[in-house]
Design brief:
The protein is built from 16 helices and 20 strands. The protein is an alpha/beta fold.
């Protein structure tokens, strides 16, 4: 079968809708929003340019794709269901380019929930059916947008606790590290999620994400970085009796820079006690490594209850390596010692750890976090309550407002055609004829990408939000 056949990138039931719309339909106007009631009160819009460039840009319809789709739908649903003539019209009239216009807010912009983020309408009245046919594909922007939002909110949280504990912010860009490639549902999802994370942070182990800025966002810069680190296959190589010997082997062979070591292969308390015991072989090796300017050792407990284990580790490290106070009176290690918690995290657990550290007198700069499944696969479309709905239809030259208003009022949809304006510091969705500068801009029209953002510009917009600027 043909990969990325645009005729098949939809839900089955949408294939039947071309003959259900009222007679005389000329245009369908639909929109995307994050509904009120989302987990976070703003959504950082991101990922549309990736979808457009990968799936919609250029001549994407061919006779071969149409014929393949016709055969598949005939078996899948029934004969004479697939809109073969509609697709052939696009092929013949528009040379396979999709006659739609997409308007959207600039990527990286944090928009208050309950507002329009994107609108879609057809530019050829014979292709009215195409707009919501594309919903299934276009709505997948929910995923990178939700991950971008989650990472931005974690950065805000980290920034807050760094400030209240008088911490240095040198390491803010690396306070949340992406560990999620292995937990992603696919390599493509890891790329999208990983790149969304890079809008707020620079730490990642998801190498495929590094290709997105270059391949889809016109940016040759590198936005993600990592360090040398061990895993359990390394640390358990010599068994329980040889654990400390293996630590020496790791340290002796480590390159200069940051070294992250997992410490819970057997007993993290014994590991940290030995590491900080003056005169022990491990302590001598660590101090030898740390004597080189720019070197740092990060200890990573990888199991246990996150809050209590973090506080326990900090206390043990203090006994061995000491601490001093920030200007706000919170304990901090020398900059060449750190702790990394990367097991089972989500936004709430990170918040709980940072709160507990503050409550126990520890500065936030002592820790960084790693998130895998919590970043890549614990979000869903309902996290930010993303929805794509039709709000207006043009029939025989007249626009009709369309909306749904179910008993569940939280799912009431908007009506009419819109623009997005700035109302003070907040955003507001208003009727298309109302006053105010429309922040929705045409990004795609008739198969062509009209706006091409760089990843760097998108990142600046996201950071402006997460840094309280």
């Amino acid at each position: 079968m043909i990969e990325n056949n645009i005729c098949l990138l939809t839900d089955s039931y949408k294939v039947t809708h071309h003959y259900f719309y009222p007679e005389g339909t000329e245009k369908i106007y639909s929109y995307l929003e994050s509904r009120v009631g989302a987990e976070f009160n703003k959504t950082v819009f991101y990922g549309l340019q990736y979808i457009l460039k990968k799936y919609l840009e250029g001549s994407v319809v061919s006779q071969e794709k149409i014929d393949e789709a016709d055969r598949l739908i005939s078996s899948h649903i029934g004969e004479d269901i697939f809109n073969k003539s509609g697709w052939e019209y696009i092929l013949d009239k528009h040379e396979g380019r999709l006659p739609i216009e997409i308007r959207a807010v600039s990527e990286g912009t944090p928009v208050d929930v309950g507002n329009v983020l994107m609108t879609v309408e057809n530019t050829d009245k014979k292709s009215y059916w195409l707009v919501n046919y594309l919903e299934s594909l276009l709505l997948q922007v929910w995923y990178p947008s939700t991950v971008a939002t989650l990472s931005a909110e974690v950065r805000k949280l980290a920034n807050f606790y760094l400030e209240v504990t008088g911490s240095a912010k040198d390491n803010l860009d690396f306070m949340l590290h992406d560990f999620g490639y292995r937990g992603a549902t696919s390599t493509e999802s890891s790329m999208l999620c990983g790149s969304a994370h890079l809008l707020s942070f620079a730490g990642t182990d998801t190498i495929p994400a590094l290709t997105v800025p270059q391949n889809y966002y016109n940016d040759s810069d590198l936005y993600g970085f990592s360090v040398q680190a061990t895993e359990h296959s390394v640390m358990t190589s010599l068994g329980p009796e040889g654990e400390f010997d293996q630590v020496l082997n790791v340290i002796d062979n480590a390159k200069n820079g940051i070294l992250s070591m997992v410490i819970d292969s057997y007993n993290y308390r014994n590991f940290l006690t030995e590491a900080g015991s003056e005169g022990s072989r491990m302590n001598s090796a660590i101090n030898r490594f740390l004597s080189i300017e720019g070197n740092k050792v990060v200890f990573r407990p990888d199991s246990g209850e996150p809050v209590s284990t973090t506080i326990d580790c900090l206390n043990i490290l203090e006994e061995g390596f000491g601490s001093y106070l920030t200007d706000e009176g919170y304990k901090v290690f020398d900059s060449n010692i750190g702790l990394l918690w990367g097991d089972g995290l989500n936004y709430q657990k990170i918040r709980d750890i940072l709160f507990a550290m503050k409550s126990n007198g520890w500065a936030a700069q002592n820790i960084i976090f790693g998130m895998g499944g919590g970043l890549h696969s614990s979000v869903n479309r309902d996290t930010q309550r993303n929805a794509f709905k039709c709000s207006a239809q043009l029939r025989e030259g007249t626009w009709f407002d369309i909306f749904k208003n179910p008993l569940d009022s939280s799912k009431k949809s908007k009506t009419g055609r819109f623009k997005l304006i700035k109302d003070g510091k907040s955003f507001k969705t208003v009727a298309i004829d109302d006053e105010g500068e429309d922040l929705l801009q045409t990004v795609f029209k008739d198969g062509e990408l009209v706006v091409e953002d760089t990843f760097g510009d998108i990142k600046k917009r996201a950071l402006k939000y997460s840094n309280f600027l």
